[in-house]
Design a protein that fits this description.
Layout (H helix, E strand, L loop, with lengths): L1 H35 L20 H12 L2 E6 L2 E6 L2 H10 L6 E2 L3 H4 L16 H13 L3 H6 L1 H21 L3 E2 H18 L9 H18 L3 H4 L11 H29 L11 H7 L10 H31 L2 H15 L14 H13 L9 E2 L4 E3 L2 E3 L4 E4 L1 H5 L43 H18 E4 L8 E3 L3 E3 L4 E6 L4
Parallel strand pairs: 2-8
Antiparallel strand pairs: 1-2, 3-5, 4-12, 5-8, 6-7, 9-12, 10-11
Amino acid sequence: MEIVSENLFLSFCFILSCFFIFTTVRFRQSSTRSTMLPPGPPRLPLIGNIHQVGKLPHRSFTDLSRTYGPIMHLKFGRLNTVIVTSPEAAREVLKRHDQTLSGRNSPNSIRSINHQNVSVAWIHPSTARWRLLRKLSATHMFSPQRIEATKALRMKKVQELMSFMDESSEREEAVDISRASFITTLNIISNIIFSVDLCSYGSEISNGFHDSVIGGMEAAGSPDLANFFPFLGFLDLQGNSKRMKFCTERLFKVFRGFIDIKTAEKSLRNDPKDASNRDFLDALLDLTVGDEAELDNNDIEHLLLDMFIAGTDTSSNTVEWAMAELLTNPKTMVKAQSEIQRIIGQNGFVQEPDISELPYIQAVVKETLRLHPAVPLLLPRKAEKDVEVFGYLVPKNAQVLVNVWAIGRDPNVWENPTQFEPDRFLGEEIDVKGRDYELTPFGAGRRICPGLPLAVKMVSLMLVSLLYSFDWKLPNTVDMEETFGITLHKANPLHVVPVKKNRH
């Protein structure tokens, strides 16, 4: 009996010893792992650092980085988040570890419409579907040949914008710069995709489209507890999913109308449409036919959603911020208009090739994108596995944010970082094409915005035309307050009265 008791006691001691060894090893591994994480602020139980992020996360993260450095770790509920705020750290994320960090953490509002499984912006770039969608976009929307072929279209739509401004000038009415430039951009893109205008200036339809795009962006970017505690998703506590569904369904309804019309036309036509008149939707619908169809109508709707949301709001936003900065910096405005007048003279209207002869205007656009990047945190990336960045651990499944807003205002990178000074770019080779990590408003690497070449052309052409044709009178002061979604808007839209220039 004593032998049995002794054996039981020894067995118990052995099991207890194993347990202590196991837990000690796990504790040490956990401790080692935590010491490898980037520095960050202390966090509260359960919620982590959620309480330290306000309505303008890019600013909250910038403030925290002054204490914790250019790569820091925060915990939002169950979600590990690593935020980088320096060009060197951005290079590590966007170039060196681009492949490992090319996944996406999709917000709950995006998942509510199943967009994460069909969107070129959200699906993983290692998939065949992503490569197909990216190829279609690059070939039929954003290739140099396609952009050149649509040059006359852009000129025509910007001339229509000038006509609208001219009418407003005669009535001495203030114009909402964001809405006006949004309609111009929207009609450029809708003609490339559908071969028709979607809106006209002042129409209620244009207002609805504008509100739907902005509403979708805000729903995707607004704080949402379901992003940090997925089990709360069905409750939709902030209403972001409801708003996303409402806004995108309005857009999908428009897209379905065009898809139905095109499909009916194709069924009635025996001969293929003249290739010179084919638009983007024609090319997409070609891939929906046959036994080995590569797309269906649902795929097309979500791809079009990407095109319109990414292409319209961001460009009109940039024009508005540029005008706001120029109006609050009169000397810079004079310098910009003087350059335009010197190059274009009395021609009466701006030609797109003129832009290449306007280095100061190009500097104005870069400076606007430095201070007001359209997507201040880019889209969130996701670590596919544990990866080391600057000696710190970025754990698998962590969300990775690149705070390009903070990088654009970093005093270690820029002199007078909060001042609007386009002259800083004169004679400099730095550009926005994803190679200079102190200025990457369109991202970099495989996730770089494919519409970059078209966006820069549209923004530059609209801005130059507005400055060439009109002087501007403010009915009130300009404030630079922001409101945050995925994109960064002015909290109070810029309303300004165009004053027709006398060129006689």
